Amino acid sequence: MRVIIKRKRNSFRNFNFGTTGNEQEMEPVVFDSYNILTREIASGLSTENVKTIKFIVREFGKGVLEKIISGADLLQLLEERSWLSAERVERLSELLQTIGRHDLDNKVQMYADSAISRNLSNHGYYGIYGMQINENYVETSMYKNIVDHLQRHNTVIMKGPPGTWKSQHAFKYAHYFSEEKSTDKSLIWRVDCNTDLNIFNSFSHLMNFLKIQCVNSKNRITESIEVMLSRALDALANDKYKESKHLFILLGFTSTSLPKETIQTLLQGMKEHTNIFVIATVSESLSSDFNPNVIEMRGMLEKEAIDFLHVPNTTSREKAKVLAKKLSYLPTGLLFARTFMQTTQISIELYLKNLETITNGTTDDSSTKACQLLIQRAETKMSREERKLLHYLPYMNTDNIPVLFLKYLLPRFLIDDSKNVLINNFLKTLRNHSLISIKGVDDSRVVAAHSFTLMILKSSETKEKKTEYLNTLLDFFVSYLDLDARLLEVIHRNVLFLDHAEAFLSNVDIEFESQSSDIKAKLCYLYTAIGITYRLYGNTELSAAVYLSKAKNTVYKSILGCNSFQCNKTENSYDTIEEYLNGSKALRKHCKDIFPKLLSNSNELSKMFINNFVENKCRSSRSISLLCKYSDIDIENVNNNQLSGVEVDHLRSKNLIMDAEHIAETFYIELLIRILYNESKNTWLVEMSKDEFSAGKRTLMKRLSSAYFPVTPESLTQHQLAHRLTYLLKKHMESVHMTSTQAIGPEVKQVRMFCPVFSPVTHRSGIMYMARSIFDDEKFPTLLDEAIRLLDNIDKGIEGKGFTEFGVVKRIGESSLFHSVMTDTLKMECYEKLAKAVQPEKKELLQKAIAIAKRLECQINDMTSWKALSGIHLKIAKLFIRTQTDENIKKAKYHYKKAYDREFESNNTRFTRFHQRAVIHYAECCIQFPKSDELTDARQILFDIKRRIGADALFEDEIKKIDYSLKQLLKNKKPVSTFIGDDDTITREDKGVQTVSSQDGYQKRFCQKTRDRLISDKKRVQSELQRIDMEIEEVEKELQKMNSFSDHK
């Protein structure tokens, strides 16, 4: 990820679809969102705009530019010259800014905000890319011992204190292994073993990398780690990987991070495979069973240490011996000493005196003091803001710090040029003092800092300073991580900060001895944001459960001082939709009891916290656009999608933001609603993704879809709690005093009443739960009919209502595109289910559902930046397949395929159950209604996944059915005149006689050149053309019916 150009508003990011060291290069996917963007830009460019841009890019040559007439011609040229692609749009943005077309540039910005990097799922962190080596590293005798040991055995355990270069030696060997590996199939994988959650996350990413559909084992993290390890080892032993060598780097094993038995299982399981090599680093002894694999890490040899210090003469060599001994020959201490002497140009004698002075009267060892001397020296070269950045580093994921993240930490009043100067000087200073290593260029740089260095930096800080830094970082994460992660733009930003937010939280529990009300609220918010991000991330439900549970416990234990409501698993009978949504009498009483307590506890939050929360919150581009639209604020004055205090006051006068006291009193209520809502969804996913579900059983296809998986009692209870609290919050907000305001204009809506934005959300979600649960046959039709009426009336009486999230209006008096699409999708599903339940009215109800589906087809192309889009395509396809007309079967296949494509657009290449569900539905549809080209396409997709997936049997039945269908079609197929084969030969079929001739070389080159010229146009229009063709067919059929009726008349 990188910042490419300077902008007044959001930083513009360019996302490369590169590899991470393990990942094979794959062909880029051209997303629908890119097609839509290029069409809008091409049509929006005027003749004068095209002329100006042609002058700017005159380096392309006069002859080429003379042929450029329209905006479409220009964009095609930019694509041909590699100035523009789905992954690289920064140059287009620069051109649009240069010619003053900021309206079109904003469209590019929104596309970039929504684009997700191909390697975002693992940040390149777990592969070789994340294993950075300090540029002053040298191979020592200890490293040679490690290499020699691995020549004879496949496991080595490096045991020793900090500063012995354990991780540096491991990374050095990983790079050596990468160069010497036998095939491109070799895997190099890093596992941080300091906590069980970090181990779980690493193996979860490994499952995604190996494309193994495997998540949970009885919903416990420790057992899940063992299951994922077993699956990974099985995959590396199969035909695809068994001829290759693989390397696992296990960093920081401790007896407190995992039970002894689990550690033994991990090491023993890997050790048994001769093609898998393991390097583990520990600071304490493990089981005696592994003693033969342990190498005790020591410092350098005396000669190595003296050579490393680069002393100029014999006298200095004697002093170097003294210094090396004083530093216990530890590589890090020697590196600090050498760097200090080089940067200050002092002699070794004077350095020894300085070291002697600083170590007198302290218990710290000399290596620690050498590090402190170097850090102090580096700080003298830094500005105030740079020194702050330095002291933030120990609280991050120190091996993987993107420069983009450091830029976000700088004050927002700084312009981009100033930020670049500060960051460049900061990194240069740290690098010159051997405190960091850097990989990448410009804004794609990633920084790695040695944990030993930062441990010393952190230990030298006063308690007051630590608290100051932690408070600043807490405010930062609360500002930039969002709870509404439906937009790709938001989930993208959340994922970028995820690892660092988790690393920060591991420090908070230790450093914050007492927590004020404000800090409790911020931590609870951060737990919730991380949990929601993991829920939407794909195959990370257990991590989501951990953080959502922390958030809920914070509210119930720390704020309310009581236990959470317990689910009654036997109570599941409901006569009306209202009963289903609101839950049992006991549940409603629980909500009624805790609601006033949450109000009173929220009042303890300070006004400063609330104002900072509202002003500094980084919002999506859509949210900012809405606030500016309904006020007279110029969107160009809103920097980094954050509001100033003046702007907040102005928006309050327009009833677009609630008063601070009202936001404060409802803060915990809104937070708990989101916790319970997301916990409900996640509990359902956890239940669906249990290990037995992933075993490739015959029920797999049904279990893949939540449509076939009833809502669990626990999940339903959590949702009912969220819905009931939302209802009480809605009633409370109706009494909130509104500011008197005058309309800006007749077309601008005014807010006359506040309403929680979750009010329609919990209604919709509750109806979805009901529709996908198993009910008594007599009750189900009545409930569905009632649900449809509720959805029909869901937007009645909303004129003048401002739907708010934490006091900030997100929607005003009208149905947003997302809300209307989700409501229609759910209504369509209810009509379809009702058609199954009420046979006499089946045809009429199906027609209503299909009418909604056709309306959705026109709307969903405007939702390319929303994460829910894949599921909508699936539901439309599922409905069309029921009618089984030629037209609707074609549409069903189109939407099943689109659902699969959308998953790659929204989830990048992480293979999750959502991808799996879409591709199996597509294959089954092609099998049921066979056409040769579609069957071949489905088969190719399945094999592509099969080549990269551990569970090879997963698609066996589908592939066998496809092969059988293709054979049957071939038997019945009539001879055709010609076709071009894969080997560039032309086959002619005439009266049963087949002749093959080699293609002429000139013709081949001509065809290839033509193909290269047309392929970008093909990608751009193919999808749209298919949809338009279907619409044309539909219109023609309607015209035929009308003509037939007219003739009859």
TrEMBL record:
SMART domains for the chain: DED
Instruction: Tell me the GO BP annotations in alphabetical order.
Output: apoptotic process; regulation of apoptotic process
Q: Do the record's keywords include Coiled coil?
A: yes
Record-annotated DED domain positions? 33-110
Q: Which residues cross the membrane?
A: none
Q: Which domain of life is it from?
A: Eukaryota
Q: Which UniProt keywords apply?
A: Apoptosis, Coiled coil
Q: Give a yes or no for keyword Coiled coil in this entry.
A: yes
Please give the InterPro entries that the UniProt record associates with this protein: DEATH-like_dom_sf (IPR011029), DED_dom (IPR001875), P-loop_NTPase (IPR027417)
Q: Entry's Gene3D superfamilies?
A: Death Domain, Fas
Q: Which residues form a coiled coil?
A: 1011-1045
For this entry, the protein name equals DED domain-containing protein
